[in-house]
Amino acid sequence: MRRAVAVLLLAALPAAAQPLPTRKPEPLPYNPFAAAQPGAGQPGVGQPGAARDPGATLPRGGISSGTAFAIGPRLVLTNAHVIRGCRDIRLRTSGGAEFPASRRAEDPERDLALLVAEGDPGPALAFRRGPPLRRGEGVVTYGFPLAGLLSSGPTLTTGEVSALSGLRDNPAQIQISAPVQPGNSGGPLLDRSGLVAGIVTSKLNAQRVAQVTGDIPQNVNFAIKGEQALAFLRENGVTPRLGDAGPVRDAAAVGEAAHDSTLLLRCQR
């Protein structure tokens, strides 16, 4: 990439990255998505027009999907943009059980939402207590990108921490190289010991950047830092599970540990 041009692009074009469109599914849990139709898109939190977003808003009456994960008894965490404008929220577990959920708290600035599940969302995932993530540290995403179009079950991707801040030095986010797609929003970003280190939220709009620079940026994605989620939960009376980073596990083991705690979220507008 021509670096000087890329820097000017981000400074001059706030729309260089936009929320990821969601896919329009048939009713869950069994039917696949209809033809892939992008949603209208919403700006990334704290960065107007900053990132494509796996839980972007669809017109009223539409259905979109995202990812959530268990953080306590009947409590799940996701992105605020995933449930924005939802009249009905439903969750599907790894075992196929489906049940409604309701809002308990939202923080649009942090792009986080706490939901109460009307069923068992699975065991609570533990958050990383320390030490802080480092550049180059391996991470794993687990969620439901393009659910129904790709695998009907959760999908795992791997990558590294690329930068310790988000677009335009957003201090509440980190940049990661792990690939994410529509539907990943709200899913856990896990360190290689299996602890939650962040929440997947957005990706750079590679197509729009390429239109200006002539080059396609690769694997420029963003997650909300785990400490932001911990602060949000504590402010809302939740005591999250914590753990200290331990021995490095292979990605398969990390995914298996998250499997029973990660849920497909359906939003009816």
Notes on the structure:
The strands form 3 sheets. This protein has a 6-stranded antiparallel barrel. Strands 7-8-9-12-11-10 form a 6-stranded antiparallel barrel. It has a two-stranded parallel ribbon with strand order 6-13. β10 and β11 form a beta hairpin. It contains 4 helices and 14 strands. It is globular and about 45 Å long. The protein is of the alpha+beta class. The protein has a single domain, classed as Thrombin, subunit H (Beta Barrel). The model is unreliable at 1-51 and 54-60 (pLDDT under 50).
Observed structural traits:
14 strands, single chain, Thrombin, subunit H, 6-stranded antiparallel beta barrel, alpha+beta, 269 residues, 6-stranded antiparallel β-barrel
Summarize the structure.
This protein has one domain: Beta Barrel (Thrombin, subunit H). The protein is 14% helix and 32% strand.
User: How is the CATH topology named?
Assistant: Thrombin, subunit H
**Separation of termini?**
40 Å
**Widest sheet, order of strands:** 1-2-5-4-3-14
What value does the Rg take, in angstroms? 17 Å
Computed structural class? alpha+beta
Which whole number gives the mean pLDDT?
80
Largest sheet: 6 strands, antiparallel, barrel
Number of strands: 14
Shape: globular
Helix percentage: 10-25%
- The stretches of 5 or more residues where confidence is low (pLDDT under 50) are 1-51, 54-60
> Could you give the order of the helices and strands?
HEEEEEEEEEEEHEHEHE
CATH first level? Mainly Beta
The figure for the number of domains is 1
